[in-house]
Write a structure and sequence with these properties.
Number of helices: 13
Helix content: 10-25%
Radius of gyration: 29 Å
Structural class: alpha+beta
CATH topology of the largest domain: Beta-galactosidase, Chain A, domain 5
Largest sheet: 8 strands, antiparallel
CATH class of the largest domain: Mainly Beta
């Protein structure tokens, strides 16, 4: 089978034989013999043993399994599609891989989300064509395994994928054609495909915009030179899940949000909303008074006896060993809430030895009604991430939430949405993350009636087609410059390899707090110049009250506006951008529109704390041209004196009950040990010891004290 660009050969025994570039006859398959297809039955894998073509059909047999499959093959000028037509199961099939090949390219470059491997001459990609299909790319030593598969959970019939092999400089043109021909998402911004539209590279302001403050926010965004304003989910929505409009911030409901968007449009700005993808807040109408049974669950036991409405001990037939028994955060499995019939119950501890059950329970939790329950009822553990429940994406609640996003976008004429927290949906099933993470976003997009710029903490091959940009994540208040170098820019390089615009936000504008300092102009200038040098854009996250209280806001505002104008007009040449891209390199923008602009090297030394006579004097070396000394002076908060009655004891060497649990990433370990050193009042000190055997710098350990 062939296109105008490549030929794919499959031997009669089911092994991929060739992937030939028709320009020069070069075969890009690895020498390792790889079966074209395989099935998994009862955890055992069976490779294709026979393949026969009959017109546009491939008949595939899988040896001793007795399973056979019929695939429809369509040869297009630039790609070949494979679709599962029928699966004959002599035994139950869990997974069907209906396309697989192992590619070898010298000096290869991997685009994991795009499912592409390329070098300077050739690019090969496997694209999933619907939510039934999982297309993947797996680096194997110097090769790359590309595959498409489907599973019993979502059905086999109709799963489909496309195989592309083209010169790399033509790849995006072919992908755009594929989107249009195969019915994939093909968003445009200002009438231009989002992957190429300048609007996809527009910086934006992420802020608490309301009906009341919209005029001021719009003015600020215009002064900064930004093109979009995005408002927080907790600002526009009363609760996550049902996403009713927050009438405190938008007293006129949807109409009020629409009027704010109209004001922004009249000022030449576009408006977006932030949401938490698939989250259900515990105060949402989906939770109480009757909890929606379409909320996700991740564990269950059986009620061991009848209980009345006030029982604080919930007996279970099986030990609830799989339920969380400790506080967890963010992406970790978490939560102490269970549902029995129409009541949510919060437990405080678990009994995993007889008598089994949930201890010290709060009945009628989250606004539900306390009720008696019969022996044999199912005790469901509610899936929870970031202190919220999750939508069960195997129910129509996913479509309901997706439709609500679309209703708000269409009714209010919004221009952008950010699907935050999407990776939490991995909790619905790790093997199916390729579907659950992007599902609600894709379902919602199918209902939009206007151009929408899309970002989010979401990934996936199918979602790539919908996505307008990537990289942004939560801001940090401590060492933001270092965080930009080791986190955002590293991720940004991978994003660019996936042919996506890169957002170096969310960059925070912080007011002073006892645990961190206020944002300084040089920190803002750092992200501005790195965005310029790396061909990226950025986003500023803050609150209007923080801007109002920022004493250096006029200076910060001018810096942002100037850099944005220079970035958009591509003012600096490649030599300047190359200097900016040097890790840690820092500059100061000097000049004017009349004189011209230039970047001069700058250096900002780490803080020096003056705590006593010995630290009152220190030396600064100037390795740059002669210049006056500049410094910032901070008054630092200090701890109370040792032994003060106002101090709170966190941990003691002789009280191990306070050490609840230690946590560590794989390859890491930690422990707390008594020390030979003594405190001022003669008590034993503690040593926190941590070590990592990992080859990378991504290890972490933690001890948590129960206070």
């Amino acid at each position: 089978m062939a296109t105008k660009r490549f030929r794919l050969g499959i031997d009669a025994d089911g092994v991929c034989a060739e992937l030939v570039d028709l320009r020069d006859g070069r075969n890009y398959l690895a020498r390792t013999r790889v079966p074209f297809a395989s099935v998994t039955c009862g955890g055992e894998s069976f490779d294709a043993t026979a393949v026969r073509r009959d017109g546009d059909r491939l008949q595939v047999r899988f040896g001793e399994s007795g399973v056979s499959a019929t695939l429809r093959v369509r040869e297009k000028p630039d790609w070949i599609t494979f679709q599962v037509v029928e699966l004959h199961e002599a035994r139950p099939v869990e997974w069907l891989t209906f396309l697989q090949l192992r590619v070898r390219l010298s000096r290869r470059r991997i685009a994991a989300q795009l499912r592409r491997v390329r070098n300077e001459r050739w690019a090969v990609s496997c694209q999933e064509l619907n939510l039934k299909t999982h297309a993947g790319l797996e680096p194997i030593r110097g090769d790359a395994r590309l595959f498409a598969r489907c599973c019993r959970r979502f059905g086999f019939q109709g799963a489909a994928a496309a195989l592309l092999a083209v010169p790399p400089e033509e790849f995006l043109d072919v992908i755009e054609s594929l989107e249009l021909a195969e019915g994939l998402p093909h968003p445009t911004l200002d009438g231009v495909w989002a992957k190429r539209s300048p609007a996809a590279r527009t910086s934006y302001l992420f802020i608490d915009m309301t009906e009341q403050n919209a005029d001021e926010v719009i003015r600020i965004a215009k002064e900064l030179g930004f093109g979009y304003v995005m408002t927080y989910v907790n600002c526009w929505a009363k609760t996550k899940g049902s996403y009713e409009i927050d009438l405190e911030h938008y007293p006129h409901g949807l109409q009020g949000l629409k009027e704010v968007a109209e004001k922004a449009h009249a000022a030449g700005l576009k408006v977006g909303i932030h949401c938490l993808n698939g989250f259900i807040q515990k105060s949402d109408p989906l939770v109480a008074p009757i909890p929606d049974r379409r909320m996700a669950t991740d564990g269950q036991v059986t009620l061991g006896a009848d209980i009345d409405a006030d029982a604080a001990f919930i007996p279970t037939r099986e030990p609830p060993s799989d339920f969380p028994d400790d506080i967890a955060y963010n992406w970790q499995r978490q939560g102490f809430d269970v549902r029995i019939d129409d009541e949510i119950i919060t437990y405080r501890a678990l009994s995993t030895e007889r008598p089994f059950g949930l201890l010290r329970c709060i009945r009628g939790a989250r606004g539900t009604r306390k009720s008696p329950h019969k022996k044999g009822a199912i005790v469901w553990h509610l899936t929870q991430r970031f202190q919220c429940y999750l939508v069960d994406c195997d129910t129509d609640l996913a479509q309901q939430v997706a439709a609500r996003y679309a209703e708000v976008i269409n009714a209010c004429q919004l221009d952008m949405i950010y699907f935050d927290g999407g990776f939490s949906n991995i909790a619905l099933g790790e093997p199916y993350r390729w579907r659950y993470v992007p599902q609600i976003a894709l379902q919602s997009a199918a209902l939009w009636n206007r151009e929408v710029r899309v970002g989010g903490a979401v990934t996936g091959s199918l979602y790539w087609h919908l996505q307008s940009f990537s990289t942004c994540n939560d801001y940090v208040a401590m060492a933001p410059k270092r965080f930009l170098e080791v986190n955002k820019l590293r991720k940004g390089r991978a994003v660019l390899e996936n042919d996506l615009p890169t957002d170096l936000g969310w960059w925070g504008l912080h007011a002073w707090r006892p645990h961190h300092r206020a944002t300084t102009p040089d920190q803002i200038e750092y992200v501005c110049q790195k965005a310029l040098g790396h061909g990226a854009f950025w986003s500023l996250e803050t609150h209007l009250d923080t801007i109002r209280k920022c004493g250096r806001w006029p200076e910060i505002k001018r810096t942002i506006a100037t850099y944005e104008r220079l970035r958009r007009t591509d003012y600096f040449d490649e030599s300047v951008k190359r200097a900016i891209r040097e890790p840690g390199a820092e500059f100061k923008l000097v000049g004017s529109d009349e004189e011209g602009w230039r970047l001069v090297p700058a250096r900002y030394d780490p803080p020096h704390d003056v705590r006593d006579e010995a630290t009152r004097t220190w030396t600064v070396e100037n390795d740059l041209p002669d210049q006056p000394l500049r410094f910032r002076l901070y008054a630092l908060p200090t701890l109370d004196r040792y032994g003060s009655a106002r101090n709170r004891v966190l941990v003691r060497h002789d009280d191990p009950s306070r050490y609840v649990r230690s946590y560590a990433h794989s390859g890491c370990r930690s422990r707390l040990l008594p020390s030979d050193r003594r405190t001022p009042d003669g008590e034993c000190c503690l040593v926190f010891e941590a070590a990592s055997a990992r080859a990378d710098a991504r290890g972490w350990v933690a001890h948590r004290a129960n206070l």
